[in-house]
Design brief:
Radius of gyration of chain A: 35 Å
Number of helices of chain B: 9
Helix content of chain B: 55-70%
Radius of gyration of chain B: 25 Å
Number of strands of chain A: 18
Structural class of chain B: alpha+beta
Oligomer: heterodimer
Strand content of chain A: 15-25%
Largest sheet of chain B: 4 strands, antiparallel
Largest sheet of chain A: 5 strands, antiparallel
Helix content of chain A: 40-55%
Shape of chain B: elongated
Strand content of chain B: 5-15%
Number of strands of chain B: 6
Strand order of the largest sheet of chain B: 3-4-2-5
Distance between the termini of chain A: 18 Å
């Protein structure tokens, strides 16, 4: 156990050397690292949001909204079908994303036509193979129930989440913050992590809106009646004003042009009133559509609608053929800026619900790092002194191993760019306490062997041999706990499991190679100089 | 200071009944306090909002209380956190789902910005909705159960079922006592505490394994020694190591508890408690339990099936 071949020695020092090399950038400032030669690693340890400050948001795409939207579309398609077939349809009810109604006929021919509705669905060409997306069943002779297939719902969800991810990414990129991470979690969730963000409210307000923009004509055939606030003619709907929810507009349901036809939107100021506005530009199709409608409706008002609220309802003075225009609606310049971002990034297919938010200000992060550093240094010094006190020379070797161990933990963390969090620092400090365990086990064995009358060299040799299986067993149990924690946890707590696990590997390595190597050197010296060694 | 216990011959098995009684009392006490006080769940598990603020000037905490009390946000806890100007505000989960929950932060921030005599620095905001908090409880419970089960399997694989059973009983003992102390002290029980409990599971196991390893070795070495003496011998032989490792771990943890800042105090407290309980349980629970579990005495045969029991 005390003999180290040349190749083994080289391997040990190489491992330590690489570890130290990767750990070293953490001891220099970012500025001075820039002046270092290229071969020198320049990556520093990756700090978690709780240490560098930042925001973590967990969002869920409200997929119910999408399913309900599809059901609404289906309902109008259904009405149209019955009109064309001159059949009576009544009692239409939507219950738990299923559509129930009373039908004048339940003949197979009409059932088949209903099934075909999903195939002719023109707006959203989501198809699962060539079969229908609908399950149509007849209850009580004249009632029909329509359900979406699970496959179709799943497809709708996946599509909506993919689209949402893309739009969330675009919106956050517009903010120009550095290195945001945006990931999908599970089927319908999105995790957003933005480091170094002072104000998470900005992101939340950006993501809190679906930003669905439409241009619709105002229905002038009726006047809004406050007594019957929900009453609107067929084909029209009542929508509130954006600045005053009590003020309602009746607008035609038909969308003239939608936000999907926008190619650009910029905040600006109205040259006459100096009021903040958003100017926009349509693509070719949008410009053509908008031109045609405005031409036909000169003198009539149209509504600019954002997320089902009427932002403004200007009167069309001339046909707008150039494909560009402006939205004014009593914005502040921040609001105009945000709206422009939202319009450029596009509308979300469904609202996002914030399930969890964790934000840490940068100064709390800095405080945590400092506290962690102080705690680590004091804990470290205490353990080092204690080991020296208990084991003298052997304790010194264990201490050297402990220092190397800590640097290795830092090196491995940096090399793999694992995230260091506050609980992660706690994990490192815990490692300081537990890392010496392997050495303690060995040294106690050596003492035992000495008491049994073995020579120092034999005792050391046997001590290492005998302690090995115990050390492995003892460390594997902690490793199992760390691995389970890694898979079950997220965020800062996961950082703890990472440092704990790394610490286990490095401490077994240092106890078994580094201390043993030093002791073997010492023993060789002892042989030649016959110096006594005490433990 | 002499930490060399190997020459001592402390008769742990003689007093093991006292240990068992003490442990039983503590376990029953923990269960009773769990049922009567319960855990003081943090927002991770209960849902709700947590805001840590720092006021630029000294202000009275009642000013914050007055500002927030008429917002009708339900139960609001306000406490100093580490220093006088550092204040922690906890607001209970709002009924009405995840969407309503999100508005709380905005409402509180604008109220504080307007009403307080000092500028406010928002150091930390955490909002956990009902969906996530429910999932976190499940995940936490699952993680601890899984860890204990994994230990059971590992020890079974490495030793014998008797050892595995003894170790896991000691482990459950440690977990119950840790949950118990959180019920009694009413310290906040949040996500990092689950991590602490898992670490305790690992640490306590680590301690137990070292003692068991020695028991197994002695079972091979001293075949005629009666089990009580053999267990005593094994505990004594490993006692120095048990104590030294506990001390180094505690030194590191105490440093973290004192200097590591307010955010992880609860987490460190749980671990300090866990190390104490884990060390106690490997000596006074795990090892003596082997006396009653009929451990295999004949280790000459490698196969466990055809081995003979004493």
């Amino acid at each position: 156990m005390l003999y180290f071949s040349r190749s083994k020695t080289i391997l040990i020092f190489l491992t330590i050397g690489i570890g130290l090399l990767f750990a070293s950038p953490n001891f220099f400032s970012k500025e001075s690292l820039k002046n270092f030669p290229n071969f020198f690693p320049s990556k520093q340890v990756n700090l978690g949001l709780d240490l560098q400050g930042g925001s973590h948001l967990l969002l869920e795409v409200d997929t119910d909204v999408i399913i309900n939207e599809r059901i609404d579309n289906l309902t109008s398609d259904l009405r149209k079908l019955y009109r064309e077939e001159s059949l009576k349809i009544s009692n239409i009810k939507i219950i738990d994303s299923s559509l129930k109604f009373k039908s004048a006929s339940t003949a197979q021919s009409i059932i088949n036509k209903i099934k075909d509705l999903s195939v002719t669905d023109s707006q959203n060409l989501l198809q699962v193979g060539s079969s229908s997306n609908l399950i149509v069943s007849v209850n009580n002779d004249d009632h029909i129930e329509i359900l979406f297939t699970d496959e179709y719902k799943k497809l709708l969800t996946i599509n909506a989440v993919n689209q949402s991810l893309e739009i969330v990414r675009r919106r956050i990129d517009e903010l120009g913050t550095r290195e945001p991470t945006i990931q999908r979690q599970g089927t319908s969730r999105i995790i957003i992590q933005v480091p170094g963000l002072e104000d998470p409210d900005q992101i939340k307000s950006l993501l809190g809106q679906t930003a669905k923009l439409t241009f619709q004509l105002v229905d002038q055939s009726v006047v809004f009646d406050p007594e019957k606030p929900d009453r609107a003619p067929v084909g029209s709907e009542v929508l509130p004003s954006d600045d005053n929810p009590d003020y309602k507009y009746i607008v035609k349901k038909r969308v003239m042009v939608g936000g999907e036809n926008l190619v650009d939107a910029q905040p600006g100021f109205d040259p006459q009133t100096n009021e903040p506005i958003v100017t926009f530009r349509f693509d070719g199709i949008g410009a053509k559509k908008f031109g045609r409608v405005t031409q036909q409706n000169v003198g009539k008002p149209f509504a600019i609608i954002l997320d089902d609220r009427v932002v403004s309802a200007p009167v069309i003075r001339d046909a707008i053929l150039g494909g560009s225009g402006q939205i004014s609606g009593g914005f502040t310049s921040d609001e105009a800026n945000e709206l422009a971002i939202l319009l450029r990034a596009g509308a979300l297919p469904a609202p996002l619900i914030i399930l969890e938010e964790r934000s840490v200000g940068p100064d709390l992060g800095a405080d945590s790092i400092n506290a962690g550093k102080i705690a680590a240094i004091i804990g470290f010094v205490a353990v080092i002194l204690f080991m020296l006190f208990i084991y003298r020379t052997f304790g010194f070797f264990a201490d050297v191993a402990l220092i190397i161990n800590l640097l290795l933990v830092l090196g491995v963390l940096t090399m793999f760019q694992a995230t260091l969090t506050l609980p992660g620092i706690a994990g490192i400090i815990l490692t300081i306490g537990m890392a010496v365990d392997a050495n303690v086990l060995i040294f106690e064995r050596v003492k035992e062997e000495l008491r049994n009358g073995s020579s120092m060299i034999n005792s050391i040799d046997n001590g290492y041999k005998r302690a090995l299986s115990t050390i492995l067993d003892a460390n594997i149990t902690t490793l199992i706990a760390a691995i389970i924690l890694f898979f079950m946890a997220s965020g800062p707590v996961r950082g703890f499991s990472i440092t704990l696990a790394i610490g286990i590997f490095t401490s077994v390595f240092t106890a078994f190679t580094v201390t043993r190597y030093f002791i073997s050197l010492r023993v060789r010296k002892m042989r030649s100089e016959s110096v006594g060694l005490k433990i | 200071m002499n930490l060399d216990f190997s020459s001592k011959n402390i008769s742990f098995l003689k007093v093991h009944i006292i240990g068992f009684v003490l442990s039983s009392i503590l376990i029953v006490g923990s269960i009773i306090s769990f049922l009567s006080f319960g855990l003081n769940f943090g927002i991770d598990f209960k849902g709700g909002t947590l805001i840590e603020i720092e006021t630029k000037e000294d202000i009275d905490i009642s000013q914050i209380r007055n500002a927030l009390n008429n917002l009708s946000l339900g139960d609001i806890q306000i406490q100093e956190f580490g220093s006088k100007n550092d204040i922690l505000i906890r607001i209970e989960q709002q009924s009405g789902g995840d969407k309503i929950q999100q508005n709380v932060v905005e409402i509180v921030k604008s109220k504080l910005d307007n009403d307080l005599d000092s500028a406010v620095n928002y150091r930390r905001t955490e909002v956990v909705g009902p969906k996530v908090s429910g999932e976190l409880i499940q995940a936490g419970t699952l993680a601890i159960t899984l860890a204990v089960f994994a230990m059971l399997l590992y020890i079974w694989f490495r030793f014998e079922w008797q050892f595995s059973l003894g170790a896991v009983l000691a482990l459950i003992h440690d977990v119950i006592l840790t949950i118990g102390i959180f019920c009694i002290t009413q310290l906040e029980f949040n996500l990092p505490i689950i991590a602490a409990i898992l670490t305790i599971v690992g640490y306590s196991m680590n301690d137990t394994v070292v003692v068991y390893d020695r028991v197994r070795e002695n079972l091979r070495k001293h075949r005629s020694l009666i089990i009580e003496k053999l267990l005593d011998l094994s505990i004594n032989e490993t006692l120095s190591r048990t104590i030294i490792t506990s001390i180094t771990t505690l030194l590191a943890l105490l440093s973290l508890y004192i200097f590591g800042g307010s955010v992880i105090k609860g987490f460190t407290f749980a671990m300090i408690w866990g190390v104490l309980v884990g060390t106690y349980s490997s000596i006074f629970v795990a090892a003596p339990l082997l006396k009653y579990l009929d451990v295999k005495r004949d280790w000459t045969s490698t196969s466990a099936v055809d081995s003979t029991r004493k």
